[in-house]
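R.M. (postdoc): so does anyone remember the format we settled on? I'll just put the structure tokens first.
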């Protein structure tokens, strides 16, 4: 099921994708299979399997970019080209494998990074990184630790990236007060007449209004440093090496922009330290696990290699709380607006998602002292 906005452009069937889209890219071999892949909420992702002349298999990731969300695909791809080239050089210098440790784009036959179809849809293709696993849920704390190490490492590798050359692909992406303003506008407009049914949730957000500028105001006054951040550090935006279990490649680079380390830390906690799925209906199953919070904190600090300032360290729990509250607010906004942004798979899906986030926020508030104690202890290790 999709929101209205995502349906505005005519969708392509598999046959047309095979006939029109795949041939626009410099792939090797003959297409054997095209299948939907992954669980992203934004883009449309396919795995393309080709058989080469030597009877080998080549796989690709084909994505239709959601242009309702990413309004300027050229700028988006320019960011990704720059970031991946920069990372590839660093990985190579460190003796790693740039083809497995960063995303690699497959050019179009015209030599570009994007192909536009007759309906105005934009497509791009990456090398499918073989021998990897993408996890939708944390199975054990070590997985979360490995993902944290990879995201921390990503942050450290980009520490000297020229941030000024990046386009702000989604302005104010994690500016929580501006997300709150969007939320209030959605409540006032109430276009689907859904506000009455979610008064408790609306109150939950409004009761926390005083916290919302904790990160943005400190970025503005310079007491928190602006860094190049990923901004969407969900567990399923990491590919793990199937052989070693290590976090191998950070993917979904669409939202790489200048931001705060607290965005990356916080967003990863809201997803990875939860004891249940993002869309779990039974809220009794949702809590912030201290064990998982600690595993992520340990991995992230190690990956960042001691580069976080004292203020960033102090505010890690606030990062977790604010990113969780902000995401819940975004899900609730989308529910109020008729599910036009995040892909949904059932009625009320965005409301279920919002509720898990608010349950997590409440639990973090109750465990606040323990969260602070973990950060302090891990920092001293
Ligand atoms: P979205 O923005 O919709 O989340 P992603 O770029 O995260 O899209 O891709 C969706 C899923 O596709 C990922 O969670 C992952 O499972 C898979 N994926 C993406 N890129 C690759 C890749 N290069 N190699 C293997 N799997 C990939
Ligand atoms: C979206 O694309 P995906 O599924 O990795 C969203 C994130 C949210 C997340 C919630 C561009 O991420 O900001 O935190 O859903 N991405 C965008 O699951 O809005
Ligand atoms: Mg993703």
């Amino acid at each position: 099921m999709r929101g209205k906005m995502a349906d505005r452009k005519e969708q392509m069937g598999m046959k047309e994708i095979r006939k029109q889209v795949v041939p626009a890219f410099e792939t090797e071999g003959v297409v054997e299979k095209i299948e939907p892949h992954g669980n992203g909420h934004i883009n449309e992702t396919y795995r393309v399997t080709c058989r080469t002349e030597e009877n080998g298999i080549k796989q690709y990731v084909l994505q239709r970019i959601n242009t309702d969300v990413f309004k300027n695909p050229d700028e988006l791809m320019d960011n990704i080209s720059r970031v991946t080239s920069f990372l590839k050089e660093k990985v190579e210098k460190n003796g790693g494998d740039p083809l497995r440790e960063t995303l690699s784009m497959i050019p179009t036959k015209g030599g570009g990074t994007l192909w536009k179809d007759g309906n105005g849809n934009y497509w791009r293709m990456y090398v499918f990184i073989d021998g990897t696993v993408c996890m939708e849920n944390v199975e054990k704390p070590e997985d979360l630790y490995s993902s944290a190490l990879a995201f921390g490492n990503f942050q450290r590798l980009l520490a000297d990236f020229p941030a000024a050359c990046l386009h702000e692909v989604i302005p104010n992406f994690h500016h929580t007060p501006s997300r709150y303003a969007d939320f209030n506008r959605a409540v006032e407009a109430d276009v689907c007449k859904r506000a009455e049914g979610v008064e408790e949730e609306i109150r939950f957000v409004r009761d926390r209004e005083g916290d919302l500028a904790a990160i943005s105001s400190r970025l503005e006054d310079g007491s928190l440093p602006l860094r190049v951040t990923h901004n969407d550090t969900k567990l399923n935006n990491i590919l793990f090496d199937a052989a070693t279990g290590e976090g191998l490649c950070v993917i979904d680079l669409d939202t790489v922009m200048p931001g705060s380390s607290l965005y990356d830390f916080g967003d990863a906690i809201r997803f990875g330290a939860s004891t249940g799925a993002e869309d779990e209906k039974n809220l009794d199953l949702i809590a912030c696990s201290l064990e998982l919070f600690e595993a992520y904190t340990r991995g992230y600090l190690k990956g960042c290699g001691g580069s976080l300032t004292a203020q960033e360290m102090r505010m890690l729990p606030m990062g977790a709380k604010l990113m969780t509250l902000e995401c819940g607010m975004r899900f609730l906004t989308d529910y109020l607006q008729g599910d036009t942004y995040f892909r949904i798979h059932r009625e009320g899906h965005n409301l279920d998602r919002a509720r898990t986030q608010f349950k997590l926020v409440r639990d973090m508030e109750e465990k606040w002292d323990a969260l602070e104690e973990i950060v302090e202890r891990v920092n001293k290790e």
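R.M.: ...and that's the designed sequence above, right after the tokens. Also worth knowing: Confidence is low (pLDDT under 50) at residues 2-8. The two ends are 47 Å apart (CA to CA).
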